[in-house]
Amino acid sequence: MDSQTLQILIAMIIYMAVVIVIGVLFAKRANKSSENYFLGGRSLGPWVTAMSAEASDMSGWLLMGLPGVAYWCGLADAAWTAIGLAIGTYLNWLIVSKRLRRYSIRANNSITLPEFFSNRFREKKKVIMTLAALFILIFFTVYAASCFVTCGKLFSTLFGAPYIAMMIVGAIFVLIYTILGGFLAESASDFMQAIVMIVALTVIVIISTVRAGGLGAVIENAREIPGFLEFFGIASPLNSNGDVISSLSAEALAANESLGVQGILDGAPMFATKQASYSVLSICSCLAWGLGYFGMPQVLLRFMAIRREDELKRSRRIAMIWVIISLGVAVFIGIIGRQLFPTEHLTKSAAENIFITLSTSSLPAILAGFVMAGILAATISSSDSYLLIAASSVSKNIFQGIIKKDANDKQVMWVTRITLLVIAIIAIVIALDENSVIFEIVSFAWSGFGATFGPLMIFSLFWKRINRAGAIAGMVSGAASVFIWKLVIAKLGGVFAIYELLPAFIISSICIVVVSLLTAPPSKELEEDFEAVKAGIIE
Q1: Cα–Cα distance between 514 and 471 in angstroms, integer?
Q2: Residue 371 lies in a domain
Q3: CATH number of residue 457's parent domain
Q4: Is residue 241 a part of any domain in this protein?
Q5: 3-state class of 122 per DSSP?
Q6: For residue 426, what is the enclosing H or E element?
Q7: pLDDT band for position 97 (cuts 50, 70, 90)
Q8: Residue 256 lies inside a defined structural domain of this protein
């Protein structure tokens, strides 16, 4: 290990030690009760609520996945996705946060999302709770896998070690930390990690822009690649045979990996001489990412955990400033990377390492180590949320809610830790492929949550006529539509190639309305709950 690598390692160890200390400091308080462990006793302030919500939401894809998309094919995909996410973030804070905070207390002081949905409809047979817990378990296991892929790529790129070994090391660290501190430690460290993430992004984009000769030089270079700097066009990387890589079938790529490697001609990366068209359908697919926020448990839980409802407005402003800056800078990093390192990353998967390349080449080793901690920060802040929420869905909602209703907090905590271990192992298995594209893994899990819980959340908070049957129909149809559309319908191409979240969200919404109207109206008690929450009465 050379001196530069050693300095980077030391800086990252210092960072990881700080994260562990936070876990230790909060461990005693977190383990007082399951409510403290899973929701922090509803004690989060506005800054921690906002920053931890966004840090846990963005994950490693903000520093690797999103810049990778911009580096690979230019502005359009990355920018429209960022715009959709920014709009979705704002609407979620504006529309959902206050009503959910209020309703979660009214619904028997619910501390998990499955518990809220179940209590919202006063279930006796816990069908909604069971289904919600299982869907959370499935999609968060996939989400955790994307975080482990990030760890593997980060450590293997930095230290030249085998991907699988480094991925497992990162997973073990995240697992230990999550078991140790629970929601409070997670939220406190997420606050710190949100700061690290935005500082890391900003520092690298400023230094890299200067290295590239200024903003004008970066823009001029991007314009030389057809479609690279267009909102309504897109660049098409070519392989050495002159084939457009993105148009090749998955079967062809699997049969010949070299077909997915971008070619180099006269020292420059090969792109099609004409920009590809960027359709309204593609724009809608990217903007649809914003719909995911309405069903994202790690964000929705922060709304439930804030100490006072009147602090949500301040949190919304803080969150939006962070999101707009972070997303904009992340996209621009990919654009700059194409000028400074045009032939460094020649596959779609490798393109996600451009932030690492810029950091290690632009900064002194010790500072690069702290910037690399930004990627680790993003990964930890998300994966601990994913693991904790998934584990709570099993221990709190299935074990205590259905299997052993008289389970005490100690038993719930033990089941939580066992579940964390099992989920982590499954996520590690999913993450074994080092050619996995972080952005694609995240997009599937994101659509799963958005379609399964998004429509249900909106209708539960704002439509008095929704009933239990409609809620079940909405969840099941949303989740099923994501799988069917992704694995079957999208393969038909054309209009069917749209991002699965949009059609699945629409199908779920239709099922909620139709089934609710065709079945018995909600009980008088449910209507009274709804009107009380609407009027601001939570007790």
Answers
A1: 11
A2: yes
A3: 1.20.1730.10
A4: no
A5: coil
A6: helix 409-430
A7: very high
A8: no
Domain limits for position 489: 3-236+271-534
| Position with higher pLDDT, 145 vs 437 | 145
Residue matched to tokens 């606050």: 191
458/471 Cα distance (integer angstroms): 11
Question: Among 519, 462, 509, which Cα is nearest to 120's?
Answer: 462
* 143 contact partners, CB below 8 Å, separation of at least 6: 59, 382, 383, 386, 441, 442, 445
User: Phi and psi of 244, rounded to 5°?
Assistant: -70, 120
Give 166-214 pLDDT, tens digit per residue. 889 888 877 776 666 555 566 667 777 788 888 888 889 999 999 999 9
**Sign, CA torsion 132/138/139/144:** positive
Q: Are 186 and 385 in contact (CB under 8 A)?
A: yes
Question: What domain count does the chain have?
Answer: 1
Count of residues in the chain: 539
CB of 478 within 8 A of CB of 451? yes
Q: What secondary structure does DSSP assign to 212-245, as a single string?
A: TTSHHHHHHHHHTSTTTT-SSEE--BBBTTS-BG
Determine phi and psi for 235, rounding to 5 degrees.
-80, 150
DSSP β-bridge partners for residue 262: 239
| Spatial CB neighbours of 15, under 8 Å, sequence gap ≥ 6 | 196, 369, 370, 373, 376, 377
> Which residues touch 464 (CB under 8 Å, ≥6 apart)?
522, 527, 530, 531
For the segment 453-462, the average pLDDT, to the nearest whole number, is: 97
Q: How confident is residue 30, by pLDDT bands cut at 50, 70 and 90?
A: low
SS3 309: helix
pLDDT range class, residue 319, cuts 50, 70, 90: very high
Q: Is residue 260 part of a domain?
A: no
What mean pLDDT value characterizes the chain? 87
pLDDT band, residue 483 (cuts 50/70/90): very high
Q: Which of 292, 89, 301, 62 is nearest to 187 (CA)?
A: 301
Q: Assign 306 to helix, strand or coil.
A: strand
Tens of pLDDT, residue by residue over 4-24, are 788 888 888 887 777 777 766
Nearest to 468 by CA among 429, 504, 516: 516
Q: Are 195 and 51 in contact (CB under 8 A)?
A: yes
- State the CB neighbour count (10 A cutoff) for residue 131: 19
The whole-angstrom separation of Cα 447 and Cα 36 is 29
Give Rg (Cα) of the chain. Answer: 23
- Cα separation, 322 vs 299, in Å, equals 14
Alpha-carbon gap, residue 478 to 456, rounded angstroms: 9
In tens, the pLDDT along 498-524 reads 999 999 999 999 999 999 999 999 999
d(CA 403, CA 513): 31
